[in-house]
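Budget justification aside, the reviewers requested a transparent look at the raw inputs and outputs of the sequence design task funded under Objective 1. We therefore reproduce one unedited record. The lines immediately below are the structure tokens for a 209-residue chain.
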């Protein structure tokens, strides 16, 4: 159920849905997603679907992880990345293959701890986990080449825009019931916003838990 064949089926599905970046597909092929969910759900880990991870949160759908990573990789180097919403740590693990330094913020301590253990076991050592509210980003480590939000705020937090490097990209779902995924790129002149597609994410919340 967690076999190579099951994983290949997932990769084929992602390609059918338009994921073309081979490095991203390779990362998804090699990262053991079954280790990012409870054992009882491990048999569903290579389905292209979000799954519960407790605390009312979900591990993102592989398609959306692939898509967001692909979007982040387009448009320039990716040294320093900020992720808002570690969750299971699965998206973080994928990012770990592409960026040199990743800062991942999570407001639910229990999820953060599990994610930290998983990445340690996989020897992904370029990730710094912070128990923090992502609303204000992480000023002390800014600017970032990429910022990726795994939860949807009603509007783009101003701090995240300000913490982008020139040339940096923010990939973020926006909206309450109906959500839209955007890529916002910072240039010398300002910000350029592109609509990507309709999506469904868990809500972006304020404060720590
Ligand atoms: N990509 C993750 C998805 C996690 S779900 C995965 O594949 O597992 C989104 C996560 O964002 C949840 O864990 C939630 O607690 C977190 N979150 C929501 N609002 C946040 C905020 N303001 N700051 C930090 N984390 C937040």
């Amino acid at each position: 159920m967690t076999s190579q064949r099951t994983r290949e089926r997932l990769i084929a599905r992602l390609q059918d849905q338009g994921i073309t970046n081979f490095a991203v597909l390779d990362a998804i092929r090699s990262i053991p997603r079954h280790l990012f969910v409870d054992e009882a759900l491990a048999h569903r880990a290579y389905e292209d679907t979000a799954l519960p991870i407790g605390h009312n949160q979900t591990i993102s759908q592989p398609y959306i992880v692939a898509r967001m990573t692909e979007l982040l990789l387009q448009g320039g180097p990716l040294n320093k990345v900020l992720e808002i919403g570690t969750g299971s740590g699965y998206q973080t693990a994928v990012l770990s293959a592409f960026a040199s330094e990743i800062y991942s913020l999570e407001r639910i301590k229990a999820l953060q701890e599990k994610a930290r253990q998983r990445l340690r076991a996989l020897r992904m050592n370029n990730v710094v986990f912070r128990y923090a509210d992502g609303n204000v980003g992480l000023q002390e480590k800014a600017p970032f080449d990429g910022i990726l939000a795994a939860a949807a705020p009603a509007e783009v937090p101003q701090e995240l825009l300000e913490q982008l490097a020139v040339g940096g990209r923010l990939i973020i779902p926006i909206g309450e019931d109906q959500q839209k995924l955007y890529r916002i790129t910072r240039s010398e002149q300002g910000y350029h916003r592109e609509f990507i597609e309709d999506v469904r994410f868990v809500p972006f919340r304020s404060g720590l838990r």
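The chain has one domain: 53-199. Strands lie at 51-54, 57-59, 80-84, 101-106, 127-131, 144-149, 164-174, 179-186, 191-199. Computational costs for records of this kind are itemized in the attached budget.
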